[in-house]
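Subject: Sanity check before I submit

Could someone independently write out the structure tokens for this chain? I want to compare against mine line by line before I put it in a report. The sequence has 238 residues.
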Amino acid sequence: MPSKAGAQHFLEVFSDPERVARYADGPRRFVPGLADLHRMTGILLAERAPRDARVLVLGAGGGLELKALAEAHPEWSFVGVDPSAEMLGLAAHTLGPLALGPLGARVELVQGYIEDAPAGPFDAATCLLTLHFLASDERRRTASEIRRRLKPGAPFVAAHGSFPQGQDERALWLSRYAAFAITSGVDADQANAARTAVDTSVSMLSPEQDEAILREAGFADAALFFAAFTWRGWIAHA
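---
Independent answer below. Compare away.
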């Protein structure tokens, strides 16, 4: 999570060593096509980013996208930011032996929020599975702070929970969220508990609202590239 506002429940979860230890497999079971999302993110960033790009990764705890992007683009360097020391520790573990080799010099991990990120300017940025933890005003502020740290024209990929929020629609999509997790091997009680947590503790918005926030933050060309059940992803440029 990139900001101090909101989502305290999930910050506590991401600071629990036992839960953090079980984190790595969770996103793959809750997010359809996660590996493909990481690969598409790299492709989209590479359209504009130079060969030796410096990339800001906000919400980097866990390290899944850091590892995917670093392996696919060996000339890129990264600054990964996350408020949870435990999740950053998991990121270092996820990078594994790579962190002891050339990758160790290419990845800087920063504990904190967007305001703790270096000023840049960066050649590209990502914020994956993160912005849905923020209320709309804080989401807009965070996206604006990301844009402020990018070079003109630099690409930004955001992907997070985003689905129709009408009363009947919301319940249906949340049930699909849980059903997908169950068919991916998540225990039914755990999947339904996650559904309840999302329903009560996460500021989910509709895709139209999310895209509007990106545009209001200065990403005038935000365009949808990823849609999978309750998840959406956008590519935009500073």
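---
OP: Matches mine. For the report I'm noting this point. The chain is about 45% helix and 15% strand.
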